[in-house]
């Protein structure tokens, strides 16, 4: 289990009341909210990167998502990629990401 670090934050009173109405453990609630937001931002950054890849990323794009994700820690791939959804895409130099495998 990861260590725990105490952090002091300030929240508006009405927000604290809303948290207390829904959750007995404020720390757990805030930790889950922060984790969800970090995951959301990581996915958004990945989407931006896929829509506008850096020129040096072309070689990585050609190797394919499956091969690329094999090199990532499991916790990263679980948060970034849900292989059960989506559409197959391929990288076409000069055109970008296109749907389909061909």
Task: Explain what this protein looks like in three dimensions.
By secondary structure, the chain is mainly alpha-helical. The protein is built from five helices and two strands, in the order αααααββ. The chain has helices spanning 13-22, 26-51, 58-63, 65-70, 74-80, and strands at 89-92, 96-99. The chain has a two-stranded antiparallel ribbon. It starts with 12 loop residues before the first helix and ends with a strand. 0% of the residues are buried.
Briefly characterize the structure.
The chain has 102 residues and is mostly helical. The protein has five helices and two strands; from the N terminus they run αααααββ. A hairpin with a 3-residue loop joins strand 1 (89-92) and strand 2 (96-99).
What labels would you give this structure?
two-stranded antiparallel ribbon; elongated; 5 helices; 102 residues
Quaternary organization? single chain
Biggest sheet: strands, sense, closure?
Answer: 2 strands, antiparallel
Number of helices: 5
Write the element-wise H/E pattern from the N-terminal end onward. HHHHHEE
- Nearest-angstrom radius of gyration? 19 Å
Which geometry do the CA atoms define? elongated
Which regions contain 5 or more consecutive residues with pLDDT less than 50?
A: none
Count of β-strands: 2
